[in-house]
Structures are given as C-alpha cells and as structure tokens.
Amino acid sequence: xxxxxxxxxxxxxxxxxxxxxxxxxxxxxxxxxxxxxxxxxxxxxxxxxxxxxxxxxxxxxxxxxxxxxxxxxxxxxxxxxxxxxxxxxxxxxxxxxxxxxxxxxxxxxxxxxxxxxxxxxxxxxxxxxxxxxxxxxxxxxxxxxxxxxxxxxxxxxxxxxxxxxxxxxxxxxxxxxxxxxxxxxxxxxxxxxxxxxxxxxxxxxxxxxxxxxxxxxxxxxxxxxxxxxxxxxxxxxxxxxxxxxxxxxxxxxxxxxxxxxxxxxxxxxxxxxxxxxxxxxxxxxxxxxxxxxxxxxxxxxxxxxxxxxxxxxxxxxxxxxxxxxxxxxxxxxxxxxxxxxxxxxxxxxxxxxxxxxxxxxxxxxxxxxxxxxxxxxxxxxxxxxxxxxxxxxxxxxxxxxxxxxxxxxxxxxxxxxxxxxxxxxxxxxxxxxxxxxxxxxxxxxxxxxxxxxxxxxxxxxxxxxxxxxxxxxxxxxxxxxxxxxxxxxxxxxxxxxxxxxxxxxxxxxxxxxxxxxxxxxxxxxxxxxxxxxxxxxxx
Length: 539
Ligand code: BYE
Ligand code: ZN
Fold this sequence. Notes:
This protein is mainly alpha-helical. It has helices at 25-35, 84-90, 100-121, 126-143, 177-191, 197-202, 215-228, 231-234, 239-251, 261-277, 280-283, 286-298, 308-313, 317-321, 327-341, 353-368, 375-385, 394-409, 417-441, 456-478, 482-519, and strands spanning 3-10, 13-20, 43-47, 53-54, 69-74.
C-alpha cells in the first residue's frame, strides 16, 4: 500500500508519521494528536518551515527530516469537559476518543467527588462506584499495551491475533481488579453462546492455535472442555460455579511472559487433546479425567516468573515456607485448593467425601510432578511399568497421569511452528529476566537462562533431543497414534532449529573471517578454533 511519511518536531523532539494515502482526514488528525500526546480537547497547530500554520490533512506535502514541520499543542481547559456521558460512551471498545491524560484527570476528580459524598452520606453511592469502576477499567485498558495499538500507525485491529506482548514490564505482576472485571464481563456475555461444532473438534487437536483467542474467549473454551468431557453432568457442577472457578483461575495467573494464563490454557488444551486422541475418555474413570484436566488448569497458579532455583538461592518466602522442596509447585497446588475452598468456586462441592479425597490426592500428585527436577524420576517410573502396563492398576494410572501432565506442560514444540516459536521467545524472555535479576542480586546465575550464553536454536535442539523426544517416545510406546500427532511435529521442530543453529554458525564464521581479513589478510584462511561451548543443560 502506498504511504506518505511526514517529518515533524513536537516539543523539540523529532518524530515521523507514516500513513496510507487512502486513509481518512480524521485518521491523519488522530495520528498527530497521538504523536503530541494531546487530549481530545486540546488544539493542535502545525507550522511549516516558513512558520506558517498549515492544515493537518491528507494533502500534507511530504517533506524530509531536514525540512521538518513543527507541531504545537495548546491545552484545553479540563474543567469544561463533560464527564459521565462521554466516558460511558467511550467505555465500549472505542479507545481513540479518550486519552490517558484526561482520563487520569477524570479519575482524580472522581476520587474527590467520592470523598465529598462519602463524608456526607457515609458510603459510596452505587452510581459513583460504577463510574469509578469504569474509569479504572478504562485506565487499565490504556495502560495495557495491547490497547495502545492505536498509538501504532494504522495497525489493523480487525486481525485476530493475540501474539505475546513485549511490554509485560509495563503491567502489574498481579492482575488488577479492573483488568479482571473487564474479562469476566466479556466471558459471562460470551459463555451463553453456543460454540460451533467445528471449533469443538478443532479444540481436541494439538494443532489448536492459542494466539487467535483472547482471554475471555479462552475461558469459554475451557468451559467447553468441562462440558464435552461430561463433567457438568457426571459431577453435578453448576454452570455459575464453573464460571466462578474459571474466573478465579484466570485471576490468579500473573502478567508474566511465559507462565501466564495462556500457558495454563495450552497445557490444559494439550491434556484435553491427549484424552481424546488416546480415547482415555472411554478407558478411564471420570474422576481421573477430572483430576487430569483440573491439574493442568491449576498447575502454574500464581507463578511469578522466577524458578525454584531462584526461590531457593534468594531464600524467598516460598522457599522458606516449603523448606526448599518444590516451592513453586507446592504453591501452585495450595492456591488451587484456596480457590476450591470457596463454596462459590468449588466445582467439587457436590462430590462425595470419598470422591473429593481421591481428587485432592490426584491433583496434588499431578501438580507436584511438574517440577522438572523430578523429570528423570517420573520418566524412569513410567519406563519400568511400561512392559506390564495395566490401566486397572492404580499405581500405573497414577504414573500415567503424571506423565501426561508433564508431556502437556512442555509440549509447545509439538504444535505448529507458528504457534510454538512465539512460546519459545516468551520462555527465553522470562529466563533472561531471571538471570538479569540474579546478576543484580549477586545470586548464582542459572546457566541456561543467561542471555549472553543461550540462543534459541542451541537451547532448543538440546532440549528436544535430550528431554522432549525421550519422554514423548515412551508415551507413544503406549499410545502409537501419538507418533503422528506429537513426535512428527517435534522432529520437524528439531530439524528447523538444527538448520537455524547451522545458519547462525556459518554467519558467525563468515563474520570472524571478514573481521580477520580486515585486520590481517594472511590469517583469513585459517579455520575456526573449535566447536562452540556445549549445549545448555535443560532443567
Ligand atoms: C521447562 C522448565 C521450566 C519452564 F533454556 C519451562 F533450553 C520449560 F532450557 N519448558 N517448557 C517448554 C521448556 C520448553 N524448556 C525449553 N524448551 C521448551 O520448549 C528449553 C529451554 C529454552 C532451555 Cl523444561
Ligand atoms: Zn507449566
């Protein structure tokens, strides 16, 4: 598409705007308004290099950086702004008509108003409370970068991708009340809609693309999983209780790059897919299936982005509470039962004492098995029972459930490349954050998290060869159909990262050669010293 680039300064700061030649005049005005960080009632003035005021329109003459226009903002009087009506109208999804600065002013004014009324009446009136909630919600929307996309130049908002945001640091670790309420309302609105048969089937396959769905939709998909496994009927789960449970789970996944609500969904969805692919629905007790799905859903609750090694080395509250024994996994599990202790979100509230006991024992076993330091222990247990595997044997079933949650937990590479690769970026981001913190706090640096040592392909080839494939191959021994659904895509991923590693290596050698050619032409023909440092040890 043909675009026009305009160079200008605002408050002495050089900026450049790009817009398609066929966009609307309003779009151009909005773009300059954004660049100036101006409120909706502020006046913008654009000057040409001669100092004349010119119109902000589509017909702006393209210029060059050394012949800039100058943009000026004249602040409008905030007090003359109508508050309620405009705010309410804008609260839908139209973000462009309200700006952050005026919103903050609204918030402050509302706070003052609330104080006055509180002093007179003794409690917050419903209308003020409602307005406050809306202001908070909108502020949250503006602060979460997803919604700042209107600042980006002409991003197509209609495209349905919810790829990871690199701006996690801009958000609070714990979800804010406004953030939760917004998603909850959307979820409740959508949850009464019927899901198409096409989506219901797609949801049962490992090819499912999580990035196409926003959080409220993901909650509906989780609800579909509980429904289609017949849990609602078998365990007499009231729809409102399931919704409240899912909401509490959503609420207690934090805003971190990897171990977030979308990861929880992927793990649960893979577990769901495995249950259907292996036909475990007809081979296992519904209580066990309920344990498996619910464990997957809860297995990383309240993860803060720093692993057990960090918890232990930094002597965090969690490590102290759990005596350095799987502090994170113990915590995830404890939070799960905190949610289940509340009657309104206890999906097990209509179960018998005996059923509840079995479920609690099962969930604890499954979630604790996700600690990767126990990887070999669990895998070896599984290998030892495989020759005589028997689903009527409780010990065998327990080990199988632990293997299934482990497989689901680390199964990103079994998904299509476009789905899997962003997940690796998220994981490395979280790992790098941890090693940065370790450096800052003078703690031992976890080797495979060091951004100076780990690259995408080097970490992933080692991980796939030595962790993923050995585990998946054992499971496929028991369920041969998984060869095609899990192992084939993982082998493809291994080829992909092996190629990437080679390409990186070649590039490095080329760079080294051309460097030395510049420094001393004679040594340029010498081969590189030796192979690179060994692969990072996966957890
Ligand atoms: C693991 C442990 C904790 C958290 F650096 C996440 F090479 C993981 F070790 N997962 N989950 C999926 C993974 C993956 N670790 C790795 N690759 C994955 O696909 C390897 C790591 C990037 C590193 Cl195992
Ligand atoms: Zn996990």
